[in-house]
Amino acid sequence: MPVEDPKVEKPAEHFDKPKDVVKDVDLSKREKTDALDTWEQDARQRLTASNEGMTGPAEGSDKKDSHRLDEVIKAKQTIGETPNSKPAH
Predict the structure, then answer these.
(1) Could you tell me if 22 and 32 are in contact, meaning their C-beta atoms sit under 8 angstroms apart?
(2) Any idea of the CA torsion for 75, 33, 47, 49, to the nearest 10 degrees?
(3) For the residues 23-39, what does the mean pLDDT come to?
(4) Among residues 54, 84, 58, 88, which one has the least CA distance to residue 69?
(5) What pLDDT is attached to residue 47?
(6) How would residue 82 be classed by pLDDT, with cut points 50, 70 and 90?
């Protein structure tokens, strides 16, 4: 089984913005899609937690700490991908 690139597994730790994933010349389109899928899933989870009042005390104090879902969706569209359907609760 191939080793996952850390940039794909945890993109928010390696890129400042989702559009930076798109610009990374070392990642294949599949890796970019996987990285943005991961970032989208994380963003949706953070947004759901925030809406349910489950934010941490310092969460949101840093711009980088926001969920960035809109930026992820735009980055996915740039590479011809669509956002994942939001799962039903």
Answers:
(1) yes
(2) -160
(3) 96
(4) 84
(5) 85
(6) confident
SS3 call for 43 = helix
Distance of CA 26 to the CA centre of its chain: 18
Tokens of 3: 């080793």
Amino acid at the residue 48: T
Q: Sort residue 78 into left (φ over 0), alpha (ψ -120 to 50) or beta.
A: alpha
Closest residue by Cα to residue 73 from 55, 86, 61, 56: 86
**With helix as H, strand as E and coil as C, how does 54-76 read?**
CCCCCCCCCHHHCCCHHHHHHHH
Mean pLDDT of all residues in the chain? Answer: 82
In this prediction, residue 88 carries a pLDDT of 46
> Cβ contacts of residue 45 below 8 Å, gap of 6+?
none
Q: How far apart are CA 52 and CA 22, in angstroms?
A: 31
